[in-house]
């Protein structure tokens, strides 16, 4: 098989739909998936594919502002205004490409943001095989197919072998596809309505189109429920650790609770070793560095500061990513003071700061049997484990 991948290929991303089944304030391609519009995820994948030379988006008239927001930061050719149907929108896009006439055009639905780069490449390769005019990504049918009458009665089971679901991208040699679309535009409404994808337009014109097997999730976001499902949460766990040494004083701050003691903890802030470990654990769940990165010890603003603000900051970063705390587990390592009498107050304090029920907070204490710096009563160590849930996609 001869593969020719020196062809110039333009990706035409179709984002002109109004999405009547989606029902949101925004058309689905501009709705947020994580922190970015659906279209931005799609563009990010296409921009990273080596065989794609240019990207143009077909948008609906009136969506210019939504488009600019979703397209910010991408290197795109000017958008093309679509028509009243998907077929006419694609034709508008193809006509806009006609002056530069790329060898290939890769047509893709903006509402398929999970497309994998490898699948785009596979379609490009399949479409450039000699004797082939186009290649379509798809999957073989897994469900049993029934033909059903208007009254709900099954009239027939349709054999599913050789049946596939066609998705996008659909990659074609540009010139024959443009001709096929121009011909289709001249058809009567009934005949044109039956051409529900670009492959159908190409097949009608006698072009040879092949199917390429999709390697993964290439879900089309059609309903708000699809978007919800696509945005499902994942659980993450991270660890935090901190140590502060004792200094002359009369009380220590642990988890926001002042505990009388024969010494205090030394530190730039209030030296609340427990809240520092918890803060690092929360930061760890979102890969946001450590407490020193956000609150440098060299910064005089944090001298004597309540460590509650450090934990509140980490929690705000988590919330900004759409995440929330599921559980916080703290272990204090020291010979003294005794933690037991203050455990409930510490749990209540952490629960209040984190805005979670007390049964989602655990405070434990241990000693090191007189060994090491904690055993010599030189300071207190704290270990924390944070379990959170965050959207699977937040960028
Ligand atoms: Mg510290």
TL;DR of this structure?
The protein has 395 residues and is of the alpha/beta class. The protein has helices at residues 38-47, 64-71, 86-97, 117-127, 174-185, 189-193, 198-204, 224-230, 273-285, 291-294, 308-320, 343-354, 372-375; strands spanning 9-15, 32-33, 36-37, 54-59, 80-81, 104-109, 134-140, 145-148, 154-158, 164-173, 209-213, 233-248, 251-254, 257-260, 263-265, 324-333, 361-366, 379-391. It has two domains: 2-222, Spore Coat Polysaccharide Biosynthesis Protein SpsA, Chain A (Alpha-Beta Complex); 233-391, 2-C-methyl-D-erythritol 2,4-cyclodiphosphate synthase (60s Ribosomal Protein L30, Chain: A, 2-Layer Sandwich).
Task: Supply the helix-strand structural class.
Answer: alpha/beta
Beta fraction of the residues?
25-35%
Q: The biggest beta sheet, please?
A: 7 strands, mixed
Give me the oligomer status: single chain
> For the CA atoms, what is the radius of gyration?
30 Å
The CATH topology of the largest domain comes to Spore Coat Polysaccharide Biosynthesis Protein SpsA, Chain A
Major sheet: order of its strands? 5-4-1-6-10-7-11
Distance between the termini: 40 Å
Instruction: Give the CA-based shape.
Output: elongated
Number of helices: 13
Mean pLDDT: 93
Q: What's the domain count? A: 2
The hetero molecules present are: magnesium ion
Contiguous low-pLDDT stretches (5 residues minimum) are none
> Which CATH class of the largest domain applies here?
Alpha Beta
- Helical percent range? 25-40%
Number of strands: 18
> CATH homologous superfamily name of the largest domain?
Spore Coat Polysaccharide Biosynthesis Protein SpsA, Chain A
Question: Which architecture name of the largest domain does CATH use?
Answer: Alpha-Beta Complex
């Amino acid at each position: 098989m001869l593969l020719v991948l020196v062809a110039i290929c333009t990706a035409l991303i179709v984002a002109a739909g109004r999405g009547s089944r989606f029902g949101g304030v925004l058309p689905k391609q501009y709705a947020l998936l994580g922190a970015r519009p659906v279209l931005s995820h799609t563009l990010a994948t296409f921009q990273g594919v080596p065989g794609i030379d240019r990207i143009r988006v077909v948008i609906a008239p009136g969506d210019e502002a939504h488009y600019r927001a979703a397209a910010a930061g991408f290197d795109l050719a000017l958008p093309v205004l679509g028509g009243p149907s998907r077929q006419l929108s694609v034709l508008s896009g193809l006509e806009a490409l006609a002056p530069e006439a790329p060898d290939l055009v890769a047509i893709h639905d903006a509402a398929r943001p999970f497309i994998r780069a490898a699948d785009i490449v596979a379609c490009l390769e399949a479409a450039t095989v000699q004797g082939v005019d186009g290649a379509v990504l798809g999957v073989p049918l897994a469900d049993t197919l029934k033909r059903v009458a208007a009254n709900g009665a099954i009239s027939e089971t349709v054999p599913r072998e050789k049946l596939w679901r066609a998705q996008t991208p659909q990659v074609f040699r540009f010139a024959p596809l443009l001709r096929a679309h121009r011909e289709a535009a001249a058809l009567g409404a009934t005949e044109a309505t039956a051409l529900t994808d670009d492959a159908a337009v190409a097949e009608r014109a006698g072009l040879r189109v092949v199917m390429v097997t999709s390697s993964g999730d290439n879900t089309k976001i059609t309903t708000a429920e699809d978007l919800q499902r696509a945005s499902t949460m994942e659980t993450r766990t991270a660890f935090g650790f901190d140590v502060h040494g004792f200094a002359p004083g009369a009380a220590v701050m642990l988890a926001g609770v002042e505990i009388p003691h024969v010494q205090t903890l030394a530190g730039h802030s209030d030296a609340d070793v427990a809240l520092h470990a918890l803060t690092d654990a929360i930061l760890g769940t979102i890969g946001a560095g450590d407490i020193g990165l956000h609150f440098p010890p060299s910064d005089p603003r944090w001298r004597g500061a309540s460590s509650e603000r450090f934990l509140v900051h980490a929690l705000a970063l988590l919330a900004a990513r759409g995440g929330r705390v599921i559980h916080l587990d703290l272990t204090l390592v020291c010979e003294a003071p005794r933690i037991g009498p203050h455990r409930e107050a510490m749990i209540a304090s952490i629960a209040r700061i984190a805005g979670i029920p007390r049964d989602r907070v655990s405070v434990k204490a241990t000693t090191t049997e007189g060994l090491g710096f904690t055993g010599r009563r030189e300071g207190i160590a704290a270990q924390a484990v944070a379990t959170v849930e965050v959207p699977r996609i937040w960028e």
